[in-house]
TrEMBL record:
<feature type="transmembrane region" description="Helical">
    <location>
        <begin position="134"/>
        <end position="151"/>
    </location>
</feature>
<protein>
    <recommendedName>
        <fullName>UPF0756 membrane protein ACFPQ4_24350</fullName>
    </recommendedName>
</protein>
<feature type="transmembrane region" description="Helical">
    <location>
        <begin position="51"/>
        <end position="69"/>
    </location>
</feature>
<keyword id="KW-0472">Membrane</keyword>
<keyword id="KW-1133">Transmembrane helix</keyword>
<comment type="similarity">
    <text>Belongs to the UPF0756 family.</text>
</comment>
<keyword id="KW-0812">Transmembrane</keyword>
<feature type="transmembrane region" description="Helical">
    <location>
        <begin position="110"/>
        <end position="128"/>
    </location>
</feature>
<dbReference type="InterPro" id="IPR007382">
    <property type="entry name" value="UPF0756_TM"/>
</dbReference>
<dbReference type="Pfam" id="PF04284">
    <property type="entry name" value="DUF441"/>
</dbReference>
<feature type="transmembrane region" description="Helical">
    <location>
        <begin position="81"/>
        <end position="98"/>
    </location>
</feature>
<feature type="transmembrane region" description="Helical">
    <location>
        <begin position="6"/>
        <end position="31"/>
    </location>
</feature>
<keyword id="KW-1003">Cell membrane</keyword>
Length: 152
């Protein structure tokens, strides 16, 4: 019952905050619960992120598949400093994602703060929830910085 109330609250928050992603996700999970398909919740939890990342990657790769990005475009992307910074950004993001995954394995209760922080970011900062792993990676960096500053 508590889970249902949380989902309804998220639906309301999503509607007020004009966040269709939160609203839709909460609605879908509520439907899963209401039609007694709770047995699929562990699978959704385990594979949902993989599916989300798959579809995100598909969307990003469409310009390559459709031919809108040509080999000359790839060469041009690395002919200036901006392309090299983008390469560095991609490499740094994947490194942070690995640190986030590692941290969540060691300290899984941090996901509560990450999820609530993501909701706050969506509603008040107009963010897009594409990366719980990135959020966990940034959390790992923030924790490390705070530990260094405090000498722990």
């Amino acid at each position: 019952m508590y889970g249902d109330l949380v989902l309804v609250a998220l639906i309301i928050i999503g509607l007020i905050g004009r966040s269709p992603i939160i609203t839709t996700a909460a609605c879908l999970l509520l439907i899963v619960k209401l039609v007694h398909l709770e047995r699929y919740l562990p699978s959704i939890e385990r594979r949902g992120m993989e599916l989300g990342l798959l579809f995100l990657t598909l969307a990003v790769l469409v310009p390559f598949a459709s031919g809108r990005v040509q080999p000359k475009d790839i060469v041009n992307a690395f002919s200036g400093w901006v392309g090299w910074v983008a390469l560095l950004g991609g490499a740094t993001a994947t490194f942070l994602n690995s640190r986030g995954l590692e941290m969540l394995r060691v300290d899984p209760q941090l996901i509560v703060g990450i999820v609530i922080g993501s909701i706050v970011g969506i509603l008040f900062l107009r963010g897009i929830p594409v990366g719980p792993l990135m959020a966990a990676g940034l959390t790992a960096v923030f924790i490390k910085l705070i530990q260094l500053l405090l000498g722990k």
